[in-house]
Amino acid sequence: MLCDECGKNPARIKMVSVVGGEKREVNLCPECAARHNLTPQAGGIGKLFSALFGAEKNNAADKLVCEKCGMRFSQALKTQRAGCPGCYVSFRAQIAAGLKKRQGADTHTGRALEYHGESKEEAISELQREMELAVACENFEEAAALRDAIRALAACEGGSADA
After folding, report:
1. Counting beta carbons within 10 angstroms of the beta carbon of residue 67, is it exposed (0 to 12), middle (13 to 18) or buried (19 or more)?
2. Residue 84 DSSP SS3
C-alpha cells in the first residue's frame, strides 16, 4: 500500500482518528509521518511493561511465582509476557505498584462521557440503531465495539450531557 500523502513510498504507519463519530484512516510513509511529527513508539506494550517494572532487579522478583503456571515474576519481567491469566492474579500487587509508580494511580479515571446534548437514553438508543445496522451489514467487529460502548454508557452514572 502506498502512502496516502505522497503516493510514492510504501505506507508503514497507519493513523486512525475519530472526530464527531466519523472514523478517518490515513496511511503514511515514514518520511511523511515525520513531517507531521508522527513517529511510531518503538517497543509498544513491551516497552511500557519494562518501564513499569524494569527497575525491579532484586531477589524478591525471583521468589514470586504464579500459582497456576509456575512462572516467576522475574521471568515475566524478562519476557514482558504473562505465562497465563493466573499470573495477573499472582502478581497483582506488583502490577498495581508498578502502575501507581508510573501513572500515579493503579486505576484509570477518564473524562466523563459527552452525549452531545442528548439524554443518556437517547444516546444508548442511537448506539443500538448503529449496532443493528452494523450487524445487518455483517460488520461484526464494529457491532461488538458498539455493544461495548452501550454497556459502558449504561453503567455510567448521570442522566444527560448537561450533568
Report:
1. exposed
2. coil
How far CA 95 is from CA of 37, 57, 65, 74, 138, in Å, comes to 32, 15, 14, 12, 38
Selection from 38, 37, 17 nearest residue 26 by Cα: 17
- Specify which residues 24 forms β-bridges with: 17
Q: Which three cell numbers stand for residue 143?
A: 457491532
pLDDT of residue 22: 80
Question: How many angstroms separate the first and last alpha carbons of the chain?
Answer: 46
Residues 108-159: tens digit of each pLDDT: 665 555 555 567 788 888 889 889 988 888 888 889 989 988 888 888 755 4
Q: Are 17 and 34 in contact (CB under 8 A)?
A: no
Residues 97/55, Cβ–Cβ less than 8 Å = no
Tell me the per-residue pLDDT of 59-104, one tens digit each, with 9 for 90 and over.
Answer: 666 788 998 899 888 888 788 788 888 888 888 888 888 777 776 7
The span from the CA of 129 to the CA of 118, in Å, is 15
| H or E element that contains 95 | helix 92-103
Does pTM top 0.90 for this prediction? no
What residues form DSSP beta bridges with 72? 65
